[in-house]
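Predict structure. Input: alkaline phosphatase, 657 residues.
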Amino acid sequence: MKCICSAVVAAALLVGSVSAQTFRRLGACPTLGCVFPPDQADFLAGQYFDIRLEVHQPRNGSEFIGLPLDEQFTFTLGKKGEEAKPVTDFFNLEEPKLEKWNFTWYEDLFARDAKKPSLVNVAAKAYRRIALYEPGEYTATLGYNNGSKTEATWLVRDLAEERKAKNIVLFIGDGMTTNMITAARLIGHKQINGKYQSTMAMDKFPVVGHQMTHSIDSFITDSANSAAALNTGHKSTVNCLNVYADSSKDPFDDPKVESIAEIFHRLTGGHVGIVSTAYIADATPAALVSHTRLRSQYGAIVDTYLNGVQNYTWTNVLLDVIFGGGAEQFYPSELGGITYQDKNYYDEFAAQDYQIIQNRTALLSASNEEKALGIFTTSNMAKWLDRNVYRDNLNQSLSPTGDETPALDQPGLKDMTLKAIDILEARSGEKGWFLMSEAASIDKMMHALDYDRALGELLELDDTVKATIAHLNSTNCLKETLILVTADHGHGFDVMGSVDTHYLAAQNVDRKKRDAIGTYEQSGESQYINTGNLTYTDSNFPSNWDPRYTLFQGLMADPDRRENWSVHKDGPRTPAAELEEDSGDNYANPEDGEGGILLNGTLPVENDQGVHSLTDVPVYAQGPCQELFQGTYNSIDIFYNMAECFGLGRGAPSVEK
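Output follows.
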């Protein structure tokens, strides 16, 4: 973002520029004049978005300049090579009312420890639900503080309006990286003398690319703003869903950007479905249609699935399919739930003609002609390993009814995805459909350092991809459907060798235990697929989840933990815990990793799990427009490539379906 500053402002910014790394006054706004969307923002032609302007008046700290709050700021917009106009003239809008508030922030860790926040007064305006239709570069200029200017260059991409795909399936392996796929292949597919006898479904895709996952104001992303980038073509701040983060206190007034599902439904009348093994209000599923600065607004997100955005005029999408966990966001407080306005959302959805499904048996027999809400457990759904191998752990999942009985009849990702396709295909006709299907617990189990469960979830994703291709082929829909498999971000995971777990357990000294790790030629062969004789499906899963020789695997960033590199048979792992309640100080969980090596963490002690990493993540593409997904590119290009394949760019306002 280009800043032309008055002398007073320039001096203040020079002093303050060394801070704002750990903390920021406001992401993507390094100056005292903020324009959202910010510099370098891209747009789909005809995509709706909001503009938020803020002028900041620091009252203390290194950015204090002694000027009064500027309430008379100006804002112009013009296409490159053309005369800029006041934004109200450019869009034929009325001037919105001036808003004012204040907020505090810490300039750095020293200020935080000293509990000395900086106070900032704000004057702001918002322009709602506007669109740019003519491709090219635009310059947005905010004038404030006696001659200071903040300029943002915006690019409206030139996309064809011709539709090339009738349907799109977007598979998200949350947190999935190439290294994880490699490890999953190793434990799920047999090899002889270094040659695999079978390969994964993803391996067979004709096009492979990679996407860069950076946030707008930090190079490490979370699942909310990374999913928002995939769905809107706009970068944002951690925790944000399809908005740019402003500094107001309201998590729902931030400037919104229209998502691929919203544009697709608005322009074509196409049908939309969401499938996830997470609680359904989690960030990745929420990113299809939700707009909030705080991904934790679960109750409001569920309400958005049913009723759309309520506080502003916006594009609302009729969701045909919603499958996942998170029942506590659907039943009211009398049953222990936490819902928006304490409503019973099973009743709310049923009142709008959704069939309510609460177990696998009912899912498989459900009508394909009706909209469907399928919620199968509280919180996240049971992991593949617990549904298929260590089934006693299903007692740890609670029924979606709120009666606190175990949820023993849960579907898997494949069951939910194939049923979602059947419903979407039956209901959409010639309009087509868009489905997002998420293997959420690859990420959740990597966070917990539960590598076996994470790889099991990845193999289930691959099994689902394989089944989806076969199913679409059997219904003659494959050739008109773009299938994408990618991730929203990654973890710093890899496999470095093998571990002799018997030898490890027999040693009494940690330094001697390390001799159990075999590297290079001592890594040997995979014992997961070459030993045992268990069979779960017609696809490739380990035949032995508890071999003597396991994988020497791990992350680059961890809490304190004890590693024995053995499968956790009693349920998902808890690697670190507070020894003193509410201390915020986590140590290796004394009940985890029996007989393993005690390893010091590298993360702040408040962390009891692993964190995301910088790594690029893979993109697999098959079907119409597959060639668009070759190479290495920004995460936002996933959105623009899908939009091009659906033919959603518009050079003029269109009649909404």
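The CA atoms of residues 281 and 298 lie 5 Å apart.
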